[in-house]
Amino acid sequence: MSLENAIAKPISSGFDRKQLVRRKRMDAVFARTGFLVTLAVLSVLLALIGQLAAEGVGRLSWQFLTSYPSRFAAQAGILSAWIGTILVMLLTALVAVPVGLGAAVYLEEYAPKNRLTTLIDINIANLAGVPSIVYGLMALALFVYEFRLGQSFLTAGLTLALLVLPMVIIAAREAIRAVPPQIREAAYALGATKWQTVQHHVLPCSMGGIMTGLILALSRAVGETAPLITVGALSFIAFLPHPPWQDEPPYVSFQWMFDPFTVMPIQMFNWVSRPQEDFHVNAAAAGLVLLVMTLAMNALAIAVRAHFRKRIRW
């Protein structure tokens, strides 16, 4: 018997046309089901955004964006809230990104595979699912009472950084793990050190996945309310924090990091809890602004991710 006949015989004898048709039918059903589920989710999302826009778009104005909160709904604005959101997210990113990325690089590229690293992996995965209020209680005891940082921007940024840190580490590790090992081997063959390989090859190749994880992590942080209320976020602030610069050397001031703060979700919660309908309209308008801020932040991260992906050609 020839080699071709020996190969063709079991294939032809084991060929089941009915089974093939059944599998194709199941694939088609799964594809249609996935499409319907996606369509339903998008429909709900568009309905919620449409309702939010219908209620709040008429309230949007330059006066609304540049005014402080007020007990009169027509005069109330979100100036201190959206500036506070930007500053808190800036501190969150400055802490969570380098720490999370450094931990991911060490655990994936340098740490030995033993029981200790396995225990660390399990704890990181568990921390990603801990309710946000637990982080708020921990931050209240650690940052407010123990370190005496007060109810400040720094406390808020550190709290949210701890909240999203497990997500950043997990996403960065998955992105680093997805880099083909041939890239590392080629770098080692040319005489590159471990750090040179990570710096010039592994990180650039994995930056797309890392940025995706950062998008998800910061998108979660920007809408968190419970941990910020726990550490002392104020719902009514009629002033801005100190400017980050000064007229005298060293011309940089960090006093704003210790000022009281509020953020957009806290301001929205304050307005929604009031019985007057005009404040509910203000909350809807603030929700639109928060949505735009989140989309802008995500668009920036997506642009950075696309930039890195264009530079990489496997």
From TrEMBL:
BP terms from Gene Ontology: phosphate ion transmembrane transport
GO cellular component terms, A-Z: plasma membrane
Locations listed in the record: Cell membrane
Organism domain of life: Bacteria
Record keywords, A-Z: Cell membrane, Membrane, Transmembrane, Transmembrane helix, Transport
One term of GO molecular function: phosphate transmembrane transporter activity
Spans traversing the lipid bilayer: 29-54, 74-107, 119-145, 151-172, 221-240, 283-304
InterPro entries: MetI-like, MetI-like_sf, Phosphate_PstA
Membrane topology recorded in Swiss-Prot or TrEMBL: Multi-pass membrane protein
Domain ABC transmembrane type-1: 82-301
Family the UniProt entry places it in: Belongs to the binding-protein-dependent transport system permease family. CysTW subfamily.
Protein name: Phosphate transport system permease protein PstA
Organism: Nitrospira japonica
Organism placement in taxonomy: Bacteria, Pseudomonadati, Nitrospirota, Nitrospiria, Nitrospirales
